[in-house]
Every structure is written in structure tokens, then in C-alpha cells.
Design a protein that fits this description.
With 128 residues, the chain is of the alpha+beta class. The protein has one domain. It contains three helices and five strands, in the order H-E-E-H-E-H-E-E. Strands 1, 2, 3, 4 and 5 form a five-stranded antiparallel sheet that branches.
Length: 128
């Protein structure tokens, strides 16, 4: 099921100051993976994008990726205006491989693949 334009707008409108806001679908988190090594002069945030994608049947995971990748690209364009850039690959396959996707899959008569959110680590220069 493709994401409707209204849902896409709701998911891709960050608050102007990019702080936690449960009503927009955008949320900063402070989780850092164990292998994380920060670079001096940069600040980092894990940013959760709630996507709520539900696909069923053959290739459900590929259709979910096709829905999610454009949302991630749009998000990155929006936060770039605030100095943030990705600190890791942001395509769905890379996020999935790096355990940055919250999902559930159910195999039965019809395979169901649901993605609730993806997490992207962002970085930006520290302000003086």
C-alpha cells in the first residue's frame, strides 16, 4: 500500500527547531551504537523517522524500501538546512543491514512486512 500524499506530508514536516515532537513523526534520540567513535568538533544525533509502512505478499520488503527511500531523501534535504548531514549510509538496505530499521515480518499464507521507523545518525559542526 503506497503512502498517501497527506501521510507523506505529515511524516516529512519537521519542527522548525528540530526538537522532539511526537505529533510530527520526527524525533531526536540520543542512542549511540557501541562502535560509534565521535570526531572532534562535530555533534551527533540519531534521528528517528516514523514511517508506518505495511506491505504484504511477494517482495513486500522491496516495496517497503521503495516507499521509505524517498522519505529518507526528503528528510535529509530538510535537515541539511539546519547543518545536519548523514554520518552513515541512508538507503534502506544499508539501514536494514545495520539494524537501524524497526520492523516486524510475519510469514503465513501471505507474508506481511511492517516498518514502523528507521534511525539515521546525523552529524554537524559544533557551533562556537
Amino acid at each position: 500500500m503506497p503512502i498517501s500524499d497527506a501521510r507523506r506530508r505529515a511524516l516529512t514536516e519537521p519542527p522548525s527547531d528540530l526538537i522532539e515532537d511526537d505529533h510530527t513523526g520526527w524525533e531526536f534520540t540520543l542512542r549511540k551504537p557501541p562502535s560509534f567513535s565521535p570526531q572532534p568538533g562535530l555533534e551527533y544525533r540519531d534521528f528517528t523517522i516514523r514511517v508506518d509502512v505495511h506491505e504484504e505478499g511477494r517482495n513486500a520488503d522491496r516495496r517497503a524500501a521503495a516507499d521509505i527511500n524517498p522519505l529518507v531523501r526528503y528528510f535529509l534535504r530538510r535537515v541539511a538546512a539546519h547543518g545536519w548531514e548523514p554520518d552513515e549510509p541512508t538507503d534502506f538496505d544499508s539501514l536494514f543491514k545495520n539494524d537501524r530499521v524497526a520492523y516486524q515480518s510475519v510469514e503465513g499464507r501471505r507474508w506481511v512486512f511492517e516498518v514502523s521507523s528507521v534511525v539515521i545518525r546525523l552529524q554537524r559542526a559544533l557551533s562556537s
